[in-house]
Amino acid sequence: MATTRLIKHKPGKGKSIASSIKDSLDYGKNPNRTGSDDMIRSYECDYETADAEFILSKEQYHAITGRNQKRDKDVLFYQIRQSFKPDEVTPEQANEIGYDLAMRWTKGKHVFIVATHIDRKHIHNHIYYNSTTLDCRKKHRDFLGSARALRRLSDRICIENELSVIINPKLKSQGKYKHYGEWLKAERPLSHKDNLTSAIDIALKEKPKDFDDFLVIMNNYGFEHKWGRGGVLSFKTKEQERFTRLRSSTLGEGYSIEDITAVIEGRKVLSNKRAKTTLNRVNLVVDIQKKLQEGKGAGYAKWATIYNLKQMAAALQYLQENNLLAYEDLEAKTTSATDKYHKASNALKQTETAMKRNADLKSAIVDYAKTRPVFEEYKAQNYSKKFLHDNEPEIAIYRAAQSKMRDILNGAKLPKMETLKEEWETLKSEKKSNYSIYRTAQKDMRDVIAVKANIDHLLGLTGRDRNKEIER
Question: Is residue 83 a part of any domain in this protein?
């Protein structure tokens, strides 16, 4: 798990360009923070003189291009801060991941240094890359959505290195980023209360005849129950030491004896607020990450012979970005994408068929009009064999055109050529629109099918294994 931040560095107030660059890079290279020089790596530069090399490249850029930016607009260099979850990576692994991130982010076109700090509980990288390219002819420009693109790349590299990733980096749509405590909370095991409310929801879906039947179902799910003073009902599993009371103040609104009785008797619908919370926690992305880190089982071995971590990284990002946090959601998405593809494909085929009919009819009309005078003369000469011999090609074209029009129209009235031309333009526009929809649907279907196939192999949910998982 790693968080990222992209920072633009401009000349500081009251500072020269040289001191602005040197002060920032010196902070990153501080031995009190890195622990040793082994935690500093560089690309196409010497990290000890990187600040001077940054400045030299800017002077060469100005000499080659003749461009010179205003001081408040000039970005001297960019910095990436990449922080890892405590105790998940070693300093050496963090430095390697940071180097990989910098290389893939800059595409090897900018010099950079990677300094890994180990002075805090969470290991983190300070990556500095020059805004000027290696050939000193261009500059890196920040773009809309660059922070999100950087985070996606960092997540992918983390998954490739079998690390966890943040499932929900933002809190709703408020732009407020979650802290580590909130991320860890989202991934912690379900509590006994969550398990109990989930079991109650499932038991009620089986539509028990009465409350006693409900207790029998709960017992089948592994929940022991007892009645206390005042008619208080409590449940517990073998893993629990204490019973959990069945009341709204403990489990949430809608989980009292009265509420459950009302649901059984059809007088009320059970509130699904707690059910939604529980379902959100059962996260397919988390399950896959755990499976990757375990590296065990026949499903993993089978998957590892066919796929690689880079493909799985792409699959996990697809799940996150499409909010597919349950296997059933992935299945539904696959079915929906396939249906949309076939619908778009059929619409495109219908349009193409209509265009072919239009083109064939126009061609037949033209051939018919060109050869009709010859056939009329042939008819006027009482179908003379000599005339037929002299004009056989034209007469054959006339008859073929006449037959084609008859087949296409199938008894309908022959439209005017102008009408056919207008229809052609409409169909051409319709085809362009349908083709765009078709290509999008085709890509969506291929993406989700590839992701599902990848995950099915990893989790062992193919064929008979999948059927067993459904039965559970």
Answer: yes
